[in-house]
Specification:
By secondary structure, the chain is an alpha/beta fold. It contains ten helices and eleven strands. The protein has a six-stranded parallel sheet with strand order 1-11-8-7-5-6. A three-stranded parallel sheet has the order 3-2-4, with helices on both faces. Helix 1 runs parallel beside helix 10, helix 6 packs across helix 7 and helix 6 packs across helix 10. The structure holds nicotinamide-adenine-dinucleotide.
């Protein structure tokens, strides 16, 4: 049976350290504040916003939510971003995904001041990520690396296979893992014969959002399995990996829930604090 990669426990541990860091900053009159722009009423977004707010409050970070109507016009969104870019007390800005159809997300992201870009999605920060001189990292990728590091799972020379090529998970994770000398393959919906690749993985990350996608016959015995997927099946949250079947063959495996999820939220808070420090020249 693979050892559990306990994301919740690590998130709690890191939160304790971050809380102290925030308390120290506050003594110097530096207050981490980040703003989330939520457009419309996506039910999952509401849950994520609540989770973030709880975590932020526990650490001493202020989170402000700007709730915009589902039919908000692009021009007003850009004006709000301009206002937050200019506000000195704001250290981080993020747009909660998904956004309604009329919103041009790329244009909106391009508008965020890279120094306040907590999600690392502005073109210059994405460029820095691939160039290896980034000052902010996307939360999920950062959280996964923290988890592997905590369990002393090295990346150098390892075959890493990532299922999913999104801008928020698959691509940035590939960039950060390449930086640590892994050999990375990214698979996606058009990849033919997934298991041909997954069977070669020392570390397999699944971020597809498809329950039951990864089965025991797709993995190499002793592989490390990181399940990013969040799928709601019959009122229950499950990942992409068939845990019962895969765990006995893995050396390490993340549970869902309690694996990558808590670390994503924790990592986001760490990015806010990092940007706060940077914005104050610390
Ligand atoms: P997305 O829909 O933007 O991207 C999914 C990717 O998976 C795409 O590149 C697609 O090509 C690929 N894919 C989907 N089905 C596939 C299949 N059958 N075979 C091969 N590739 C396939 O999603 P996303 O925003 O990257 O999120 C992915 C999953 O991770 C979702 O379940 C999401 O809820 C979850 N997620 C979890 C966390 C966390 O903290 N645990 C953070 C972000 C996203």
């Amino acid at each position: 049976m693979g050892q559990i990669l306990d994301g919740q426990q690590l998130a709690n541990l890191r939160a304790c350290n971050l809380k102290k860091e925030v308390a120290d900053l506050k003594k110097q009159d530096i207050k981490p504040l980040f703003c989330v722009i939520n457009i419309g009423n996506d039910p999952s977004s509401k849950i994520y916003l609540r989770t973030k707010k709880r975590r932020a409050e526990a650490i001493g970070i202020e989170q402000r939510v700007y709730q915009l109507p589902v039919d908000e016009k692009q021009v007003y969104l850009l004006a709000l971003i301009d206002q937050l870019n200019a506000a000195e007390e704001v250290n981080g800005i993020m747009i909660q995904l998904p956004v309604p159809e009329q919103i041009n997300l790329s244009e909106a992201l391009d508008h965020i001041n890279p120094e306040k870009d907590v999600d690392c999605l502005t073109p210059s920060n994405v460029g820095r990520l691939w160039r290896g001189d980034h000052f902010v990292e996307p939360a999920t990728a950062h959280g996964i690396l923290a988890l592997l590091q905590h369990y002393q799972i090295g990346l150098r020379g390892k075959n890493v296979v990532i299922i999913g090529r999104s801008s928020i998970v698959g691509k940035p994770l590939a960039a950060l893992m390449l930086e640590q000398d892994a050999t990375v393959s990214i698979l996606h919906l058009k990849t033919q014969n997934l298991s041909e690749y997954t069977k070669r993985a020392d570390i397999l990350v699944s971020a597809a959002g498809q329950a039951g996608l990864v089965t025991a016959n797709m993995i190499k015995p002793g592989a490390v399995i990181v399940d990013v997927g969040i799928n709601r099946i019959a009122g229950k949250i499950v990942g992409d990996v068939d845990f019962a079947e895969v765990a006995p063959q893995a050396s390490y495996i993340t549970p869902v829930p309690g694996g990558v999820g808590p670390l994503t939220v924790e990592s986001l808070m760490e990015q806010v604090v990092k940007l706060t420090r940077r914005n104050h020249g610390r």
